[in-house]
């Protein structure tokens, strides 16, 4: 079963649930994720959606790279 | 409303904004402009203001006035700009530090998006039009004042985050602030270089600035603010507000004074911040750390006790040497032995030498607290007596900025004559001194303090050009009357005028 990635989950929760997501975030430029002290603090307020917005990455591009890594992106309708 | 009417309305609003801005720009009465504004609009969108600003520039407004215009915007539209990030009504009050910060971010964003980047593009396309280069230079110069925005954050907000155990984010963010300061300095240098470097080099520098500044605004508003809102109290914001004006603002007028209401403070007391997961966890970590420190302190206590003579006035917090007194005594002895008489004679003033304990003097009277005839406390030093009021007055008037860091490397006190070279805020008192410096100077500060602790060095000095003045900064190891390390005194001084002194001005000279 492919794991679902929720773009609005906090990065802190996400990394606990799906540690394999870390390289994708680092690729996005969200390298704070590799610092445990940052992950525990700022990570509770950062989401993939916010990260994409901050780094000016179009959402569909982010979705594509997450899917390319073998995950599924949770769709909120 | 039909599309046509909507369109008409938008055009009308736009016209009114331009009218108000123009009126202000031509030196019209601020109150009158404000009155027109208030009766025309209940609120204005950021995009409306920025497009009005563009319209004004298009009608021939001198672009050199952009900063002035920004200030005027800030004043007239204060609190009237709708912001979809609205979080908390209190924080939207005029003068609240969050409001001031967001307003600055708004202006900075507009400066980048509506002036710097369009000018850069037009300059590249125009080939030879220097008018755009002039505007680029002006915009970059204005952007350099972002230093105030960052300095306020670093000196008022970061120490409080640190206090609540949120230590990593301020450190990381301070590093990025410094990087941005560097990028802006580089861009400023490039556009003012003769001959002018390649256009693409300038473009790359400006784009790097833009990207980092915009990203920092996002981090401040979307990550830092929600994070600190979980822990900061109304009093915390009051402290931040009270210390902000001295540091200054970026491209906005000084905000109205703001203080938390009694009700807001009472609310914090009655209903302590719903200690969220983050704070709870951080508190645990902080307490564990504090416990460790206490343990370390207790372990050293017997030794410390022995040296803390009962005549010493210093509060207990001061007398906590953290290294083995034996090792230290040895090191001090070695250090002193290493000091040749020539070196000592070569301009080491008497008062920089270590405490007199090593050179016993029968006449020496230890400092003590005594009560004068009218029952007021005074401090009796070896060379005389000062009342607390006198001491306070002396520190206030001393033409030096002093900061004292105690034996545990925590900031204990700073003098304040109202205009310090480097901002110091009450929030730093009690915080680890290394957290009060940009990360890039962390290692250097740590090294100086370690050397002071170990007794291998007892002073360090630097002089730097800082915002157009020559700042002379010295650090001294302070020892108590028994020669034990008591802390580090930082002495900063604006020596610009002193360096320019020539000839003589004697007491008997004519004025």
Automatic annotation (TrEMBL), chain A:
SUPFAM superfamilies: SP0561-like (SSF140683)
Xref: InterPro entries: DUF1858 (IPR015077), ScdA-like_N_sf (IPR038062)
Organism superkingdom: Bacteria
Limits of the DUF1858 domain: 5-62
Protein's name in the database: DUF1858 domain-containing protein
TrEMBL record, chain B:
Residue intervals of the Hemerythrin-like domain: 97-228
InterPro entries for the chain: DUF438, Hemerythrin-like
Pfam family, one: Hemerythrin
DUF438 domain residues: 18-82
PANTHER family cross-referenced by the UniProt entry: BLL2471 PROTEIN-RELATED, DUF438 DOMAIN-CONTAINING PROTEIN
Protein name (Swiss-Prot/TrEMBL): DUF438 domain-containing protein
UniProt organism field: Lapidilactobacillus mulanensis
Lineage per the UniProt record: Bacteria, Bacillati, Bacillota, Bacilli, Lactobacillales
């Amino acid at each position: 079963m492919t794991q679902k990635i929720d773009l609005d989950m906090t990065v802190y929760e996400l990394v606990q649930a799906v540690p394999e997501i870390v390289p994708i975030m680092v690729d996005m430029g969200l390298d704070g994720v590799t610092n445990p002290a940052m992950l525990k603090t700022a990570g509770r307020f950062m989401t993939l959606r916010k990260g994409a917005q901050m780094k000016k990455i179009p959402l569909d591009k982010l979705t594509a790279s997450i899917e390319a890594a073998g995950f599924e992106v949770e769709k909120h309708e | 409303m039909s599309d046509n009417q909507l369109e008409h309305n938008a055009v009308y609003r736009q016209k009114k904004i331009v009218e108000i801005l123009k009126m202000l720009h031509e030196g019209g009465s601020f109150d009158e402009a404000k009155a027109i504004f208030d009766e025309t609009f209940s609120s204005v969108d950021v995009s409306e203001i920025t497009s009005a600003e563009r319209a004004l520039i298009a009608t021939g407004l001198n672009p050199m006035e952009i900063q002035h215009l920004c200030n005027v915007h800030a004043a007239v539209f204060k609190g009237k700009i709708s912001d979809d990030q609205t979080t908390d009504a209190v924080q939207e009050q005029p003068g609240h530090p969050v409001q001031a910060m967001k307003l600055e971010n708004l202006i900075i964003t507009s400066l980048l998006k509506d002036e710097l980047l369009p000018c850069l593009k037009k300059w590249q396309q125009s080939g030879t039009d220097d008018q755009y280069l002039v505007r680029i230079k002006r915009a970059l110069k204005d952007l350099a004042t972002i230093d105030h925005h960052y300095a306020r954050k670093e000196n008022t907000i970061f120490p409080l985050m640190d206090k609540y155990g949120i230590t990593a984010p301020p450190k990381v963010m301070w590093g990025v602030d410094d990087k941005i300061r560097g990028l802006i300095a580089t861009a400023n240098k490039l556009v003012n270089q003769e001959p002018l470097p390649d256009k693409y080099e300038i473009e790359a520098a400006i784009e790097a600035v833009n990207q980092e500044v915009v990203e920092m605004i996002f981090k401040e508003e979307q990550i830092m603010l929600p994070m600190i809102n979980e822990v900061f109290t109304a009093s915390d914001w009051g402290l931040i507000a009270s210390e902000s004006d001295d540091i200054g603002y970026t491209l906005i007028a000084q905000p109205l004074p703001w203080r938390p209401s009694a009700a807001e403070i009472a609310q914090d007391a009655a209903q302590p911040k719903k200690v969220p997961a983050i704070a709870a966890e951080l508190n645990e970590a902080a307490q564990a750390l504090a416990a460790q420190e206490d343990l370390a302190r207790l372990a050293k206590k017997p030794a410390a006790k022995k040296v803390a003579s009962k005549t010493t006035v210093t509060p207990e917090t001061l007398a906590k040497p953290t290294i083995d007194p034996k090792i230290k005594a040895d090191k001090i002895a070695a250090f002193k032995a290493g000091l040749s008489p020539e070196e000592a004679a070569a301009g080491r003033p008497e008062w920089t030498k270590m405490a007199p304990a090593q050179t016993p003097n029968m006449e020496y009277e230890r400092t003590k607290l005594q009560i004068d005839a009218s029952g007021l406390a005074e401090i009796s030093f070896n060379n005389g007596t000062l009342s607390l009021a006198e001491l306070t007055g002396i520190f206030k008037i001393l033409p030096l900025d002093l900061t004292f860091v105690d034996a545990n490397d925590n900031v204990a006190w700073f003098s304040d004559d109202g205009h310090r070279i480097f901002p110091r805020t009450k929030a730093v008192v009690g915080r680890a001194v290394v957290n009060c410096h940009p990360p890039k100077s962390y290692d250097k500060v740590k090294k100086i303090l370690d050397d002071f602790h170990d007794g291998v060095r007892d002073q360090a000095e630097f002089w730097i050009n800082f915002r157009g003045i020559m700042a002379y900064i010295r650090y001294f190891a302070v020892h108590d009357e028994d020669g034990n390390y008591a802390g580090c005194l930082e002495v900063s001084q604006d020596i610009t005028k002193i360096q320019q002194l020539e000839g003589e001005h004697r007491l008997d000279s004519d004025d």
